[in-house]
Specification:
single chain; about 400 residues; alpha/beta; eight-stranded parallel β-barrel
């Protein structure tokens, strides 16, 4: 199939239209740093330690990695990022990126904050999404125990019922306000309760359209089959499957745990297998679009090209409201902004939260950019080209201004 038929990701004028020279230089510095896995590991370790002992490092974090990958510390603080994206036809997914809460009070607080993201999303006209992790609403150890099939104590069973009620409250509010909800995937050893809860919410709220989305991490070798199983379940039980497809974010952790505990590594044998299954999954969803809502979350240029071709292949318009492209805030602007300029539905994940609480999210972004082949390198190459292009344009303008 011919790539670059409908969109050109090398159009740097579109790609960096929202970035000032200063912002580009800051991104250049951060992605340059991420070229060194050792430096990233040491830097993130020092960051966590400094925050834990109360050293005044929040200002440095805020001005560097936090500003690049997060919209703000509060929902209101995301307004600048939201307006910036909306000006170029890109939606924003508000993601309260606080994980690993420890108390019932904390879980209830997270649920209320997610409700606020739904209310804020409902105020926008063209793209209305929210996202959350169930680990923001439940004890990780409780989810681990449920996944393992261990018997719960009476207290644990009651806690799990509260988790399900929190999620149901969120999804009910999303239904009332017509806002789609992405329930993010997490580590495979807690995925069974995440699957159970998300499937039940889809069955309850996806009767008319895909409103609640389940996340498939395609770097797990079971995911393509799992997608087809959930699609069959959706057809049998008369609900629409919401399918958010990503490659995944816990690869090293998954492999290490599997080796330590002596079970089969759930991760694909290589990147090629992950790419193959991701692309097969996007085509499967578009082929069955009458039953499925697709959110294609990818920073891979070829995979995004292929989705544009699948839309044409199956006779769907570029702006079909059942198909969305998604990238993370601060990454792959050349994909997001060029897709939006070509008329596709594009959304950026805009995480927010207190700086200390977002460290797990920021660590994943830092690790992702060092471990995913070519990610930070590709970002750096494009940023360098754009800085050079702007420098040349300024020189030419200055030369012309003399005459």
């Amino acid at each position: 199939m011919e790539l670059k038929k409908f969109v050109d990701f090398d159009n740097l004028t579109n790609a960096f239209a929202a970035r000032t020279d200063e912002a580009l230089k800051q991104a250049h510095f951060i992605f340059s740093t991420m070229q060194s896995p050792g430096l990233v590991k040491v830097g993130m370790g020092l960051t966590k330690w400094s925050l834990n002992v109360g050293l005044p490092v929040k200002g440095i974090i805020r001005k560097t990695i936090f500003n690049l990958f997060c919209g703000g510390e509060t929902l209101d603080g995301c307004q600048r990022a939201t307006n910036e994206l909306a000006a170029f036809g890109i939606g924003a997914i508000f993601d309260y990126s606080v994980e690993g809460e420890k108390s019932e009070e904390g879980f209830d607080g997270s649920a209320q904050e997610i409700m606020r993201t739904i209310d804020r999303a409902s105020q926008y006209e063209f793209i209305r999404f929210s996202a959350f992790k169930i680990t923001g609403l439940a004890h990780f150890d409780l989810l681990t125990k449920i996944h393992a099939g261990e018997k719960l104590t009476e207290e644990e069973a009651a806690a799990y019922e509260r988790v399900k009620k929190r999620v149901d409250m969120i999804c009910a509010e999303a239904k009332r306000k017509d806002v789609s909800v992405l329930i993010d995937a997490e580590e495979t050893w807690i995925q069974k309760p995440v699957t159970e809860i998300t499937r039940d919410m889809m069955a309850k709220y996806n009767t008319e359209k895909a409103l609640v989305f389940y996340t498939f991490q395609m770097y797990a070798h079971s995911m393509l089959g799992h997608l087809k199983e959930l699609h069959a379940d959706a057809k049998e039980n008369n609900y629409r499957l919401g399918a958010k497809l990503v490659r995944g974010a816990y690869m090293e952790k998954e492999a290490e745990r599997a080796q330590e505990m002596g079970y089969e590594n759930p991760i694909q044998p290589n990147k090629e297998a992950t790419d193959r299954d991701f692309d097969a999954a996007t085509e499967y969803c578009i082929k069955h679009i009458d039953d499925i809502g697709l959110f294609a979350g990818s920073h891979n240029e070829k995979s995004n090209y292929l989705v544009t071709l699948y839309l044409e292949k199956y006779g769907l318009p570029r702006d079909d409201r059942r198909v969305y492209f998604g990238q993370l805030y601060g990454m792959s602007d050349h994909i997001s902004f060029n897709l939006a300029a070509a008329g596709y539905n594009v959304i950026k994940y805009v995480p927010y939260g207190p700086i200390k609480a977002t460290i797990p999210y920021l660590m994943r972004r830092a690790n992702e950019n060092t471990s995913v082949k070519g990610q930070s390198g590709r970002e750096l190459t494009l940023i360098k080209k754009e800085l050079e292009r702007r420098k040349g344009a300024k020189k030419q303008f200055a030369h012309q201004d003399k005459f």
